[in-house]
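# nightly structure sweep
# worker-07 picked up a monomer target from the shared queue
# config: single-sequence mode, recycle default, output format = structure tokens
# input follows
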Amino acid sequence: MKEILRLSVRQVVRQVLRSGHIDSRFLSKRRAREGVLLHQKLQKAYGPAFQSEVPLRWERELDQVHLVLEGRCDGLKKEGDHYLIDEIKSTLLSQEEVLKNPNPLHWAQVKFYGYMVCADKGLDQVTLRLSYIQVDTEEVFYLHEDWSRKGLEDFFFSQLEKYLDIQREVLAFRDLALASMGDLAFPFKKPRPGQRDLAVAVYNMIQQKDTLLAQAPTGIGKTLATLFPSIKALNQGLIRGIFYATARSTQKDNAAKTHRLLAGQGLRLKTLVLSSKEKACLNDQLACNPRDCPYARGHFDRVGPALKTLYKTRDLFDQGTLAQTGEDHQVCPYYMQMDLAPYCQLIIGDYNYVFHPQMSLEETLDQNFKDFILLVDEAHNLVDRGRDMYSLCLGPEPIQALLKEEGLKPALRSRLEDLLIQMDLVLTPTMTTYPQMPETMTDALEDLLGHMDRVLARTQEEPSQSFMDLYFLLYAHRDLLASYDPQDFIVYSPPKEDRIYTLCLNPGRVLGLKQASFSQAVFFSATLEPMAYHAQLLGTPKNTHYFRIPSPFDPSHFKVLIDPQIKTSYRHRQDSLDQVATYIKAFCQAKRGNYLFFFPSYNYLQEVYQVTKAWDKKALVQERNMSEKDREAFLNHFLQDQEVHGYAVMGGVFSEAIDLPGQALLGAVVVSMALPGLSPERNLIKDLFYQRGQNGYDYAYKIPGIIKVLQSAGRIIRKADDRGALLLVDQRFLEPDVRALLPGTWDLDLFYNQDQLQDKLRAFWSQPPPKSPPWT
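# output follows
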């Protein structure tokens, strides 16, 4: 049976007819949305002879595949034996400007539709029409062309041939890939305990097209346990691709390492590791326009050969590979990766690509993900990341900064001042909440944004930085308001801040809508308890399957100690600083080696470090806003033959998704419960869930804090022959409701002074080392 290759007209036209430069200076998502509304308005004005949104399909046996090309024309009109095909486009340009610089992609799209109609209905000639609707005035003007079937056929096949040039490489590779997937064996002689169970659960879920919430301990190899069965499902035709979503670059690296591991077993799989624009940029400054960036200048004229060369020579398209290709061909790696995406079976990228309100994955990567599985790594992170994505703050400073510019046009100035006036009406001296943004405020924001759009459309010069900063900020607000629901969001103004916050309290609904782009999803982490809490806040469907794997590691290898008297809550921190420092010293003196000390905040970390630095000459302190290079240097100290004590923050980059097995890390001290600091935002979350009959304090404070503790503790035991110790420094860990959230395998051993602490640790470390199990 020949393979079916499905293509969209938009996909083919965009790939073969783009030319010239990347120029994102004046791009506007809002124009596209306005265009949709105007588009629909014009379709409603069609006469009775017109059909709207007409699906078109053309198929043929071609190059050993069954090629299916699909599209949807905006309008199709029949008068007697004659047909008119209409394509609607919105524009900010005048009719004269459109005629002077016609868009070849617009005409190509309607020509494709014209040939498909001719072929379907046996026509010799059709009329093609581009209907332009001007965004500002809603004036409509038309461009007509009469075409013969022969002329359209020649154009159609010439462009299709260009597209199939790279598709032939894709199809040839697909056979190799499928064969390698079928032959692929698990890369280790024996899976780790629990690893096979997770892999089987993932494969079964793919077969059932359901959603899975899976909790599995750190160190069992969750990345491999989710990717391996997904690749087998690819081989079976159960899915068409995999999107592996991560919260941190370290998790992206782990997924890429798994690709390399399986490639060493013979796997052939085209894998793309998506990079942010900032990290992918090769230019001295992030300026995506032909004036300021040589890689943007003429990018689309050179990217085709670059893509073909890259596809032929590599299977893993990571940041380094894309950067080198960008240099060799003088193209932009960031935009090139978007063109590579439709040809890859595995895509690895940050949560933003899937869940951010300003990101449409299908538009950005130009493909449909309905047959893809979504794998969400360290899924507990997505709750707060989701809240952050769908929350924004608007203050007067960016508006005032633009008002200070000289030569500001009166029309723009008046709209800026009007928005400030509306903001002042919302701001109050006391804490005030609103079920949604006041309509007068929204209207002022929309009016200003629309005017700024028109300014951008007509200017020939680069706008000021203040203009663009405000422009993108207002856009973000508009995109956020499109997702707003009073049941899950709130607008509030804190006292004495001159700020208006739009806050997402429960991200479940908006995250669930984004998940719907995929055929199924797996959310996995070592800390997904309580499962109902995560299912609700991640927005998984009601029929989500819960799957728990108990720790396979011998609990006697893990020593957990706690002083039931020490208090480290915020109001007791100053009083207990010396005691905390004393316990840290005793902990790492019981056995020399590498340790991590975790704190709930940078401030608390520094307060303790000011006490310990007098004796701790092995200290390595996490700094705020560390670069990727600095983070790597920090971790490399643990992999060298020297003693190191790392001071780090819970919930930070060193508290999860890092692997320090064996002697690289002997233990950790977790100071305090890592509860989020008291804040208006957290209290609003608490109030929402209390109103819904749930424990709001747990949702807003306790559970998020305990998750950070568990993640930090999870750095200690990474392999079955690891041994390690954990010191919990806070009496609250012994409270029944908190103890219930800690793993049942943790046997909390009590001590009452530093001598007892050291005695218990020396007894633990004096035990003979465990034998290596067969799966390591």
